[in-house]
Amino acid sequence: MNYLTYIGGFLFVLFLFGWCFLAIGILGRGWFLFTNKNSKDNPQR
Question: Which superkingdom (predicted)?
Answer without folding.
Answer: Bacteria
